[in-house]
Write a structure and sequence with these properties.
Length: 247
């Protein structure tokens, strides 16, 4: 991810003004962009405001139960969206069709961290190798702060789905406990203020192989979201980190 990719000074709207929203605001301003609108729970009517409609892109970090509504209200105002909200992706096929049919723009990722996306590439490569060694079982543990409502995390689900695509002996991920050899367990822990730890463990009777990504703070996520907004400018359709990073 080029951290100095200022294609233009953009007008950015923020949807969600919690900890992530405030860090995104600071980084966006530091990269020469203008924050033209901030929408939080107490001023959702501002989706219809001239200030919001003037934005080149909106960056959205909120909660699963309002994410789809936020996207649609932004689309209705002619604003492209970059979002890192997870926990709603059962609706993704429907939303992708709406985006295609309506010529809208959504850049969505379960995680905007460059390090996490390197980790995802390593995860896919490792799963492809481990497909040759059926004596190893695989499971995942993810740890997040107590304010994170969805479990497993969106990043964990993405990692698990990438393993399932490459590991013939696993068909489905399950929460917490594996009941059948074809299942892959994802254990979720919520404690303290942990930004995010994802650990994937392959275990056999003779040894184990473990890879871990440990997020130290939210700045990397926020920077990734702003760079994604810069990448999204002028583009249409459903976009993701694979489009931007091209590993």
């Amino acid at each position: 991810m080029n951290q100095h990719l200022n294609i233009k000074n953009m007008k950015i709207a923020l949807i969600g003004y919690g900890k992530m929203g405030k860090i995104i605001e600071k980084i966006a301003i530091g990269r020469g962009h203008e924050i033209v609108s901030i929408i939080d729970v107490d001023n959702t009517d501002d989706f219809d405001s001239p200030a919001f409609k003037s934005a080149d892109v909106a960056i959205e970090f909120t909660q699963p139960h309002v994410a789809l509504s936020n996207y649609r209200r932004a689309f209705a105002s002619g604003v492209a969206v970059v979002s890192g909200t997870t926990g709603w992706t059962d609706e993704l096929p429907t939303l992708k069709k709406e985006i295609q049919d309506g010529n809208k723009t959504l850049f969505w990722s379960s995680n905007f961290s460059l390090g996490v996306n390197v980790f995802m590439a390593v995860n896919k490569y490792l799963a492809g190798i481990m497909n040759q060694f059926p004596n190893y079982n695989v499971e995942m543990t993810e740890v997040h702060h107590t304010q994170k409502l969805d479990a497993p995390s969106g990043t964990a689900i993405t990692l698990a789905e990438e393993i399932l695509e490459r590991l013939d002996r696993k068909n489905v991920w399950v929460k917490e406990t594996q009941a059948d050899p074809s299942e892959m367990a994802i254990k979720s822990i919520r404690e303290g203020q942990v930004p995010g730890i994802h650990t994937i463990r392959y275990e056999s009777e003779v040894d184990s192989i473990t890879i871990t990504h440990d997020t130290k703070n939210r700045e990397g996520l926020a920077l990734g979201a702003v760079v994604a907004a810069e990448f999204t400018f002028g583009k249409k359709g459903f976009l993701g980190m694979k489009d931007m990073l091209k590993f």
